[in-house]
Specification:
The protein has about 200 residues and is mainly α. Helix content is about 80%, strand content about 0%.
Length: about 200
C-alpha cells in the first residue's frame, strides 16, 4: 500500500494523535484524583468516545454527498479503528477494573442486564470489521467486504441502545447520540432513494 503524501499524510498524522487526546484527558484526571469514581469515569469517557467515532465514521459518506472533499473517505478507516479501540478499552475497563475478571459476575451481567448484553454484542460485531479493515482483506473479500462492513449500522444502533438503557434518569446525552444517528441513517436512505430514482 502506498503511503499517503503531502496534505493527506499531515491530516492523518494530526487525526491519529488528536484521537488519542481522550486517553490523555482521562489519565490526567484519574492520576490527579479529580474523578470521584475513577472506574466509572474511565468507563463513561471510553464509552462516549466509542459512540463519537462510530458516528464520525458513519458521517463520512453523507458528508461527501453533501459536497465535502473526497479526502474524507481516506480518513474513514482510521475513525472506524479508533471506534473499535475505544470500544475495546471500554470493555477492558469493565472486565478488569469493574468486575476483576470474575467470570460468574460477567456472565450474569451479560445475561441479566440488557445494556451489557447489547454493548457486548456491538463489540463482537465490530471485531470482524476491525480485522478486515486492511487493503489485503478488501481485495480478498471483494464485494463481500462492503456487505460485511454494513454491520456498522447495527453496531451503531446497539451502541446507542446500550447507552440509552445504561442511563436510568437523564436521557439527554443518549438522546443526542440517537438523533445524530437517525439523521445520518436518514441521509443515507435519502441519497440511496435519489440514486435509485435516476
Amino acid at each position: 500500500m502506498q503511503k499517503p503524501k503531502g496534505p493527506l499524510a499531515a491530516i492523518k498524522l494530526t487525526l491519529f494523535f488528536a484521537a488519542l487526546l481522550p486517553v490523555g484527558y482521562t489519565a490526567w484526571h484519574v492520576l490527579n484524583g479529580d474523578a470521584i469514581d475513577p472506574v466509572a469515569f474511565m468507563t463513561h469517557v471510553s464509552g462516549s468516545w466509542t459512540l463519537v467515532f462510530l458516528l464520525l465514521t458513519l458521517a463520512i459518506t453523507p458528508l461527501r454527498r453533501l459536497g465535502f472533499p473526497n479526502l474524507l473517505i481516506r480518513l474513514r478507516r482510521m475513525l472506524g479503528l479508533y471506534a473499535y479501540f475505544y470500544g475495546t478499552l471500554h470493555f477492558a475497563i469493565y472486565l478488569c477494573l469493574d468486575k476483576g475478571f470474575a467470570p460468574g459476575a460477567i456472565a450474569h451481567d451479560i445475561v441479566k442486564r440488557p445494556f451489557i448484553t447489547v454493548g457486548f454484542a456491538a463489540l463482537l460485531l465490530m471485531t470482524p470489521l476491525a480485522l478486515t479493515s486492511t487493503d489485503g482483506w478488501m481485495r480478498r473479500l471483494k464485494r463481500n467486504w462492503g456487505r460485511l462492513h454494513r454491520l456498522i449500522y447495527p453496531v451503531a444502533l446497539l451502541g446507542v441502545l446500550h447507552y440509552w438503557w445504561l442511563v436510568k434518569r437523564d436521557h439527554h446525552q443518549p438522546l443526542i447520540y440517537a438523533l445524530v444517528l437517525l439523521i445520518l441513517l436518514g441521509l443515507r436512505v435519502f441519497f440511496r432513494s435519489k440514486k435509485a430514482s435516476r
